[in-house]
Amino acid sequence: MSKTALITLAALLAIIGVIAVITSRAEPPRQVQAKPAYPAHIELAMYQRGDDWQKKYPTVVAAETQNFGLNFYKAMNFDPNALPSVTINAGETKTVIPKVLSISATEEKNRSPEIISIFITARVKNGGAMSHDEARLYILDLIEKFTALGWKTAFSFNKPRLSGIHALNYYGADDLDPNYKLSFAEWMQLDGSLNWELYLNHTYMRVTVDRDQDHLDPNKPGAYIMSFTIEPHEEVQRMYVDEKERDHWRQLWIPIARKLRSERNIKEATLKAQGIPIVSDYKDPELPPAPPGQQNPVIPKDLQ
Predict the structure, then answer these.
(1) Cα–Cα dist 275/12, whole Å
(2) What is the per-residue pLDDT for 25?
């Protein structure tokens, strides 16, 4: 190559270099946006402050605090291929819920700003279409894990105390016995949502199973989803009185409890006459500890 050609080539390379520098300065290199860092595990406790929970998981928890009377905290839109598990702290017991799709927590502004209600939705196994028996075994295994932790069936104060097949026959899907393993035939015969009412350490948990009502052929796949409603005993008790009286519900509890217990006694007497056994050793949960400045009423013998 001639000297002139070499000079020309060098000049072209220099020009190209200058253009590249100018272009790089004018348009900085595009950065690939990183995906949110979804936690593999989330913890949540009753009476925890919502803003503290949001600070602990800022990439997934969003707050709605402009509502009248209530603050809402929500976590959802997780990576569908890596759904987190959630641990709920109930007293000193930690209950793990796997494959969580969403979490909602509620605070009441007019009282202390603490979480008083938790609602969780979760996949059944890996989600999508699955055999009904596969879903049954997965759900009953999860219920069994809860009872192994100490969760027990919880009856409303006016409901008869029944277990096993007798609870199934009386309540249907509304109040299933967590210690009764439903057969496949029983599972498929139940209508609507399936529900278990559980109690542990002054905490109530309602486990609900919903399934696609258009796909209930036992020989074909179905679609399932689970939800969990967790509330402290204090909040459940307050709902028995009118809203304006809820801050001093303990003062009103004895006559309310007597009325509810009377309704239960009548129902149980009817069932006994039919030869249906009553779980007579079941005792209603003790009242939750009273806050400072209050005290629980003395429970009379007829309510013990």
Answers:
(1) 102
(2) 44
Strands 70-75 and 85-90: unpaired
Cβ partners under 8 Å of residue 192, min gap 6: 173
Instruction: Tell me how far apart the alpha carbons of residues 190 and 257 are, in angstroms, rounded to a whole number.
Output: 31
| Count of other CB atoms within 10 angstroms of residue 194 | 21
Under 8 Å between Cβ of 109 and 118: no
Sign of CA dihedral 213, 215, 216, 221: negative
Residue 69 pLDDT > 90:
no
Asked if 72 contacts 104 with a C-beta cutoff of 8 angstroms, the reply is yes
How far is the C-alpha of 254 from the C-alpha of 256, rounded, in Å? 5
Per DSSP, the three-state class of 127 is: coil
What pLDDT does residue 31 have?
52
What is the bridge-based pairing of β-strands 70-75 and 61-64?
Answer: antiparallel
Which residues lie across from 100 on neighbouring strands? Answer: 122
Alpha helices in the chain (DSSP H): 3-26, 50-56, 132-149, 164-171, 184-189, 233-238, 253-273
- 132, 186 Cβ separation under 8 angstroms: no
**Average pLDDT, stretch 173-192?**
97
User: Is 207 in contact with 198 (CB distance < 8 Å)?
Assistant: yes
- Taking CA atoms, 85 is separated from 43, 95, 104, in Å, by 9, 10, 14
> Would you list the DSSP string of 186-254?
HHHH--S-EEEEEEETTEEEEEEEEE-TT---TTS-B-EEEEEEEEEHHHHHHTTS-GGGGGGGGGGHH
pTM confidence score: 0.86
**How confident is the model over 262-285, as pLDDT tens digits?**
999 999 999 999 999 999 999 999
